[in-house]
């Protein structure tokens, strides 16, 4: 069976906003994510924000409703069509594009913020993706992300438990080999002009410890996500980085 099967997202596009769909629980992550991201961005109003790997538009609409000027990009043309249709129904102005994270079709220094959630573990080239995100961010702009760590715990939970045994995630959606250790992601960030990145409370660049990466947990039985205030990042983690 192929891994990192992104066809799943194309298949989900027609029912992306259906509350009974397989994909819909992902929409419940945004309040938790932004409870965390808001610590770095207290007011999103008027900010130009790019959502990389936007899918059918959950995060784009969440940001637009908070006053951001939102652009979304995804490699799935079907998801972009679903996102465009729903934003029109919702009366929201969001600029959607189909394209790849490794080659963003935007000028340098275009955005105040870039959000990339549930995506870095799927892209073909995460280093190039981070470099492109840095390129399109303005100096001082913020990169907000979450992704999955590559550990035995993440393999056990994300692949064996949730895909193979419980079937809560369709088999083949994830490839454990593409999961991204925080240390690797921090190296990519540092190499491409980002600053103020921390890992497990230890500042990689010699500053005071700041907890900027936390665990994300999903309770499948109740359909609830929780953001835990601890530093156990062995499965999912969340963080921010600021461009110099």
Please give a handful of descriptors for the protein shown.
244 residues, alpha/beta, Rossmann fold, 11 strands, 29% helix, globular
Q: What do these coordinates show?
A:
- This protein has 244 residues and is of the alpha/beta class.
- It has a single domain, classed as Vaccinia Virus protein VP39 (Rossmann fold, 3-Layer(aba) Sandwich).
- Helix content is 29%, strand content 25%.
- The strands form two sheets. Strands 1, 2, 3, 4, 5, 6, 9, 10 and 11 form a nine-stranded mixed β-sheet that branches. Strands 7-8 form a two-stranded antiparallel sheet.
- Helix 5 packs across helix 7.
- It is globular and about 45 Å long.
- The protein starts with 6 loop residues before the first helix and ends with a strand.
Question: How many domains, as an integer?
Answer: 1
Write the CATH fold name. Rossmann fold
Global Rg: 17 Å
| Biggest sheet layout | 9 strands, mixed
- Find the CATH superfamily: Vaccinia Virus protein VP39
Summarize the entry for a quick read.
It is built from seven helices and eleven strands. It has 244 residues and is α/β, with parallel strands linked by helices. The relative contact order is 0.15.
Task: List the topology elements.
Layout (H helix, E strand, L loop, with lengths): L6 H6 L17 H8 L10 E5 L5 H7 L4 E6 L2 H14 L3 E5 L12 E7 L8 H11 E12 L3 H14 L16 H10 L2 E2 L2 E2 L2 E2 L10 E6 L4 E5 L7 E8 L1
Parallel strand pairs: 1-2, 1-4, 2-3, 4-5
Antiparallel strand pairs: 5-11, 6-11, 7-8, 9-10, 9-11
Helix pairs in contact: 5-7
């Amino acid at each position: 069976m192929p891994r990192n099967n992104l066809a799943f997202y194309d298949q989900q596009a027609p029912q992306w906003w259906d509350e009974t769909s397989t994909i819909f629980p992902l929409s419940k992550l945004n309040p938790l994510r932004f409870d965390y991201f808001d610590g770095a961005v207290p007011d999103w109003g008027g900010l130009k924000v790019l959502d990389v790997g936007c899918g059918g538009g959950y995060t784009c609409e969440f940001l637009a409703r908070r006053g951001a000027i939102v652009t979304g990009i995804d490699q799935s043309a079907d998801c972009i069509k679903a996102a465009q249709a729903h934003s029109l129904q919702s009366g929201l102005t969001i600029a959607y594009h189909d394209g790849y994270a490794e080659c963003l079709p935007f000028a340098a220094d275009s955005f105040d913020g870039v959000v990339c959630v549930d995506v870095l573990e799927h892209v073909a080239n995460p280093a190039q993706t981070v470099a492109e995100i840095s390129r399109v961010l303005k100096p001082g702009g913020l990169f907000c992300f979450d992704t999955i760590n590559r550990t035995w715990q993440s393999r056990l939970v994300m692949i064996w438990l949730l895909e193979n045994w419980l079937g809560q995630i369709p088999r083949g959606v994830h490839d454990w080999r593409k999961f991204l250790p925080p240390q690797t992601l921090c190296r990519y960030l540092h190499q491409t002009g980002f600053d103020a990145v921390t890992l497990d409370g230890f500042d990689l660049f010699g500053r005071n410890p700041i907890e900027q990466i936390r665990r994300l947990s999903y309770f499948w039985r109740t359909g609830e996500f929780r953001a835990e205030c601890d530093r156990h990042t062995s499965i999912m983690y969340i963080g921010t980085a600021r461009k110099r």
